[in-house]
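[job 0417] fold request received: Transport permease protein
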Amino acid sequence: MSTTTPMTPMSAAHHTLPTGSPLSRFGWTLADAWTITLRDLNHWVLRPGTVIVGWVFPVMIVLMFGGLFGGAIGVPGGGGYFEFLMPGMFAMTMLFGLETTMMAVTTDAARGVTDRFRSMPMSASAVVLGRCVADMLNSVVGLVIMIGTGLLLGWRWEGGSAAAPAAVGLLLLLRFALLWVGIFVGLIAGGPEVVTSVQILVWPVGFLSSVFVDPATMPGWLGAIAQWNPLSTTATAARQLFGNPGWGGESWIAQNATLMAVVWPLLLIAIFLPLSARGFRRLGG
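[job 0417] inference complete; emitting structure tokens
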């Protein structure tokens, strides 16, 4: 009578992945990644509450800051506060989804779902890439909702038809980079309770930026940190491209915000994308 040895995470590493040319293996990776993407999207359809709350929460922040505090906040160069706030909140929305990514990755690992993926002959990159694609689709919807909210509140872009898509591209580039940070943290976290602790850090990062106020109103050292925040560079670049009021300054980072809105995300991707793939391969090993 034969017996079957249960599959363990360690034995998963011995499964044979598809062989062939690099192009063929890349095609397998994309196909596997799309399968993971569809699995994540199906979960959202079955449990839409979390996704909808994630879309509505930034709208509530806009209404709170714009309606309650907007009249007391001076806008650099004049103009309405909503015009200043909306590009910053677009960037802030790209940061808010970080917690959702971390929690989803950590939950899959804690429930053994990730181990089951590792027991299959599929690319390690496909699993994390599929998660990333699903969250990017979610972020696109969230950004569209925020832009619609801004238009309803009187926000307009004045930078021309070519500049506006460039601003949206920079915002989504930031989101793509932050997704890999969230995936990596989710993979190395010991459990959902660790992710909850990390979530607390999202708010200081968001507020220590130019999203809500001009860093020139902060103490000198604090304002310098805020200017170098990747969230600030993307928010500032978006304001410039949308033609909205923003903050200037003589510092190098203030004069090169659009450049750094590309450099910061690319740097984060270069660091955390390979770390995420490596973390997945080593998970449970």
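[job 0417] notes: Residues 1-16 have pLDDT under 50 and may be disordered. DSSP finds 14 helices and no strands in the chain.
[job 0417] exit 0
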